[in-house]
Amino acid sequence: MTxxxxxxxxxxxxxxxxxxxxxxxxxxAAWSLARGGREYGxxxxxxxxxxxxxxxxxxxxxxxxxxxxxPSVLAWSMLALVAASQALRWxxxxxxxxxxxxxVIVVPDLPAVRTGPYRLLAHPNYVAVVVEGIALPMVHAAWxxxxxxxxxxxxxxxxxLRVEDAALASLPEPGTADA
Length: 179
Prior knowledge:
There is one protein chain. The chain has helices at about 5-35, 45-65, 70-95, 125-140, 145-170, and strands at about 40, 105. It is mainly alpha-helical. The chain has one domain: Four Helix Bundle (Hemerythrin (Met), subunit A), CATH 1.20.120.1630. The protein has a two-stranded antiparallel ribbon with strand order 1-2. The N and C termini lie far apart (about 50 Å).
């Protein structure tokens, strides 16, 4: 797993997974909007797309330019964290069902979800993003990408969390809406 080719394959697989997320997101956004959903925080969304797309490219560029020696223990432990973050991400997606998307869209009168990972954390998907943002580049010792993405993503998440928390505050408490 410490070679450059397996790393390129891994990043390619993550990119394909992101495309699958976008397909699900687009379908789910249409579902939410058809039910009167309201989108919050459109302004930061293009920044998020650029940051997350650039993240995938940056770690590959770094790996090709720096060609670091990668200890097996680092590669395999980081790969385990990448797998765990993917599992958490898809647990979030499956728990939210048609209400999950990459934008912040809430459907009025539907209470916030408090099951699955959301019974443990308010924003478990962002935990997955943070862990993956460090672990994925570190599978190939791309520490510059890991640090840069983490810092930039922290700023973006500060905005995103404010937007999402405000959107969620507009929803009824679980158990109070007619289903």
